[in-house]
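Q: Predict the assembly, please.
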Amino acid sequence: MVRIAVIGAGRIGTVHAATVARHPDAELVLVHDPVGNAAEQLAAVHGARATHDIDAVYEADDVDAVIVGSPTPVHVEQVVGAVRAGKAVLCEKPVDLDLARVDECVVAIAGHEDRVMVGFNRRFDPTFAEVHARVRQGEIGPVEQLTIVSRDPAPPSPEYVRTSGGLFRDMTIHDLDMARYFLGEIVEVSAVGQRLDPAFAHLEDVDGAVTTLVAASGAVATIINSRHCASGYDQRLEAFGPLGALEAVNPGATSVRHSSATRTGASGPYLGFFLERYAAAYSAELGHFVDAVRTGRAPSPTIEDGRAALVLADAATRSAATGERVRLPTTATTRSHP
Amino acid sequence: MVRIAVIGAGRIGTVHAATVARHPDAELVLVHDPVGNAAEQLAAVHGARATHDIDAVYEADDVDAVIVGSPTPVHVEQVVGAVRAGKAVLCEKPVDLDLARVDECVVAIAGHEDRVMVGFNRRFDPTFAEVHARVRQGEIGPVEQLTIVSRDPAPPSPEYVRTSGGLFRDMTIHDLDMARYFLGEIVEVSAVGQRLDPAFAHLEDVDGAVTTLVAASGAVATIINSRHCASGYDQRLEAFGPLGALEAVNPGATSVRHSSATRTGASGPYLGFFLERYAAAYSAELGHFVDAVRTGRAPSPTIEDGRAALVLADAATRSAATGERVRLPTTATTRSHP
Amino acid sequence: MVRIAVIGAGRIGTVHAATVARHPDAELVLVHDPVGNAAEQLAAVHGARATHDIDAVYEADDVDAVIVGSPTPVHVEQVVGAVRAGKAVLCEKPVDLDLARVDECVVAIAGHEDRVMVGFNRRFDPTFAEVHARVRQGEIGPVEQLTIVSRDPAPPSPEYVRTSGGLFRDMTIHDLDMARYFLGEIVEVSAVGQRLDPAFAHLEDVDGAVTTLVAASGAVATIINSRHCASGYDQRLEAFGPLGALEAVNPGATSVRHSSATRTGASGPYLGFFLERYAAAYSAELGHFVDAVRTGRAPSPTIEDGRAALVLADAATRSAATGERVRLPTTATTRSHP
Amino acid sequence: MVRIAVIGAGRIGTVHAATVARHPDAELVLVHDPVGNAAEQLAAVHGARATHDIDAVYEADDVDAVIVGSPTPVHVEQVVGAVRAGKAVLCEKPVDLDLARVDECVVAIAGHEDRVMVGFNRRFDPTFAEVHARVRQGEIGPVEQLTIVSRDPAPPSPEYVRTSGGLFRDMTIHDLDMARYFLGEIVEVSAVGQRLDPAFAHLEDVDGAVTTLVAASGAVATIINSRHCASGYDQRLEAFGPLGALEAVNPGATSVRHSSATRTGASGPYLGFFLERYAAAYSAELGHFVDAVRTGRAPSPTIEDGRAALVLADAATRSAATGERVRLPTTATTRSHP
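A: Predicted assembly structure:
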């Protein structure tokens, strides 16, 4: 039984707490949140203890592992604190919005990298994971073109946008990780940003983007993002190779098809957002983490994967701002290869 | 070049005339219709001659083959007349609504059966034909269960219904032929009729039916019919065997898919009716007939296939009326095996 | 918190125990199985007590409700025993293979019918349930034709077949309940059995069937069954009405599509069998039962639904054996209307 | 009846000749080809005259319109020659590989632009055309993101590649026209080329590309090209807007779906290449041209559309070579707006 503390009792912390509670080999023992009585409320649901004191998490003898689901600015200090206290860590993405801070984190946990996992949940989505596994088995030959469509159902609040680090670091980063997961080292990034929703006119951020990545292998990945999608959370991927293609169609809540006088074969809208769309992915992600903690094997994705995705997000941000393509040093995204 | 006369300048005759005109190895030379100036109008479109005199068709030296697209009651006399005049014949289904009359026809053309083809157009639909060919190649093993959905877009007029011979002889007969085409000899028929549309309350006919056929092979076919379908002309088929299944999905006018706030992946409505849905089938059917005439090979389906489908339609009509299953003599539907 | 005992530690009991363990408002307190140490093993997984003594279940003060997942022959005595002991009961289908025994059960629990639920899990499948809800909302008008395809992946063992009560009582009964769920009162049953797999040549049962049901409403349901399906567990349904159709497509494990030189858009095989295919249905079924116990509302489907499905299965068995259609007395399947 | 001469009896000329022959309001009267007896052979199929002398085409009194399907280097002189002779012209794409030559052509036909149509056949594909029409009707709001996948089944010969003008001018030009057709004026082009097939290692061309276009409207188009595709000719498009999305799925030869032990719902491979895939488009394109000639209305796409697509192809070629994005003068692609 892996005994787990969840740091952060917000939206994502609540997901992780419930996922831990359902896992047969994991136990939620502690919830931390400094604000109000959020920690107490979440802990009560699952019969766990609550604390406002972050040191209490590090010092808890009955905590084997920590899930960091707090706001991004405190990720690094909590990852370092937990690792130093001998805990295994699953840290939500992004590790930090500032690459220098991530590098500090990497230095600080040196020698313990194999105790830290970064929460790129999409790698664990059953449909994406199946595509990845079949690609690895050679079913389509080496991937030549990867196309990712990733659209949120509706824009976040202006407040969220202002502290998000921008579209590429906040939203595209998931897709950038997927590109690395499928293609390995990325050597060039080009991005075009769009201001689609009038609400973004007064924000210093874009709400649409097309990002093109060139891999060292010669493969090209295209990522199409939008902060809105009338049909819901649009999450798709196609890997194309010389022997064929594998496509991850966006799954729905059910498989009902409707026909009427005006249409045939209509599915329902897409799943609402990431909590619904990636419910199975969060379970599988935790399962991987718990297995790693139990067996002592290094989990994946690593903090280097988190760093590499941020390098790509920074490059995409710069490319969109300057209109230039950004060449990456060959080791920029490959210190920890998929 | 096969020189063709079309008898009947109504809806189906018009289709055949245009199909002949487009065929590179066929030439429309004569159109017959006794009513008004229908023959003249249709002939003018294609630069052919017109006549009101049926004997002129039989006597025309420049006519190699005749397509009988006249009203059902005159089919038999025209088939016999044309065959006796040495013409090859493609006769629209049904040969006649009265089995005794069909039998008279069979006797009358004895020795010339291989000059007469019956127009079960669905055998020539590219999608159904591909399923049939792949079944023959053994892709799913012997067919065990065949499911046919066949729904018209909207009911015909009461006048049409009254002289149609009833749903099973008028509409289901196509599906009965398809069942024979896939399963061979049929030994038992059971049918349930439905009165769905209030317009049929005062008609001596049903407008919905489920017909179950048992084949000598042990396979079972299910035919689901309706005289209405909100989405258009619904024409589908599934062949199931021990190694898998082959399904004929209803093709649409285009392959556009629409997604919105309330649905995703919606196709347009089905094609309107048989002229649109089976346009390619009519072309392929004529191609088969023209090839048969040119090469002297016997065309298929034969008049025996036309007779066998009528035997099944009669049995289905009786079963729906009495509530009894109808066993067929083993030779009833197999004198001309698919 | 509803405290639950599971009777039967076999395949379905194991499913129910795990489902209870995951339910936030239910607690597994006791597992019963008379054979070997099956009860002990299953109980240990979930930290529950085990017993070989059925009376211990009835007498347990800390048991609010019982799930009967034992072999069919002991269902009735256990339902009655539990109800008399004041427990709510969720009984697996079928209640019994013998209608007389079911009637005895109905009499024995008179006055407590609202404490007994029968486990027709398919009503709770998210896709089927959505079709049902949308039909109820009038989206396609009154259902006129219902088509159910229900095929197992592979035949059960000869031993299982011999005590199963036959295909219609063992397998079709689920589809018969679905027909009632969608169409209400059924007035006529006609069934054709098939012996498809050579393994069934020496068994007194069929392994394929097409069953046609006429509803009091005039609607017709068609059920197509097979004990084998190369692609896995094939579970589909189409409801057709004057305004359109709602189809329940068989969901897959993922939504990957594969294209290669020989095919495009290929999904993976169907889910293996009912444990995978109906995992969500079992959870929703338990959720409904737990809610009923907590709120005191009568659960559905009821024992009368269980009885009615058996009446239809008996009729289908007789129809397949005799070749006759079976008319049902108008109250045969409607004492407890959906 | 529009009397038509076809210049060029190669692959595309043969398609146009057959399309003319089938059109009820057009007549093929003359075929020109300078090489061997190609003109004679094609003319004979359709009962037309043949000539090796291009002036004979211009001088023919019984020729109303000319279809230019000759090799690209002679397009301009033939367009100009035919226009000066008073003929209407349908010219295959590209008008020329050299923009200066296209400009000369524009000057030379000044005042007769409305007599010249350029053969961007995809605008007339029924599926793409339906998406375009529904976009125009506002079904998804203004297009924000357009994604085009366009992959050939297999690379052309090295000889073809060497004189093709390169991937962007030869292949992508169709997609660039589609981008303009949907988005109007394009202001920025960025392209990444790929050398995927080893056969291209010694050729001065790429065989894969991802091209990103920014429209004046703010919309972004992404074009994904490959010279090979295991599944056949892959031609798809998705238009995304604030109210939803319209997708053009690649249609197949039939709508058969196959299920087996290893897969479900598999369609056949894509159609082989453009002759099959765009058969209906060529018919509709000719229909538009014939209507324009008969009514005197200007056809579309115009020579300015042909010029604008070449401007974009040149820009994409330069971008792929230099790694720089190419900004276009605001009038570069809009002299003739869609």
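Chain B touches chain A at residues 230-232, 250, 252, 258-270 (CB under 8 Å). Chain B is about 35% helix and 25% strand.
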